Amino acid sequence: MIVQYQGKKDGKSTMFTIKINGGNLSKTSSNYELFLYVGDKGANQVPLFTTEIHQSLSNCLKEIYLFRKHNHITFDAASEKTVGELVPHDQIVYNFNKPALFRA
Fold first, then answer.
1. pLDDT of 8-49, one tens digit each?
2. Quick one: which of 26, 33, 35, 98 has the fewest CB in 10 Å?
3. Global pTM?
4. Do 63 and 53 form a contact (C-beta atoms < 8 A)?
5. How does DSSP assign the chain, residue by residue?
């Protein structure tokens, strides 16, 4: 699942992309790993951060939140856009855990 947000980094507006790599990464249980990219689609995207592998999506989103907070990156929650094929289970789990990404 891929989710995009408009946001700001170093005071400049840009697009951020979160790619959720979920599933059976360890072959024993469901795990998640998230990749954060900055820039528009295609060749302009630059990898910015990769989370550790966690058994919960919530922990991965907390890592992204802490990275954003430390690096003064903001996301506009209203600009959320899901890209590509959508697995209903992934969407439900993401929506349930999304508050961890936008803590105050």
1. 998 899 999 999 887 655 556 678 899 999 998 766 789 999
2. 26
3. 0.86
4. no
5. -EEEEEEEETTEEEEEEEEEEEE-SSSSS-EEEEEEEESSSGGG-EEEEEPPPBSSHHHHHHHHHHHHHHTTEEE-GGG-EEES---HHHHHHHHHHGGGGG--
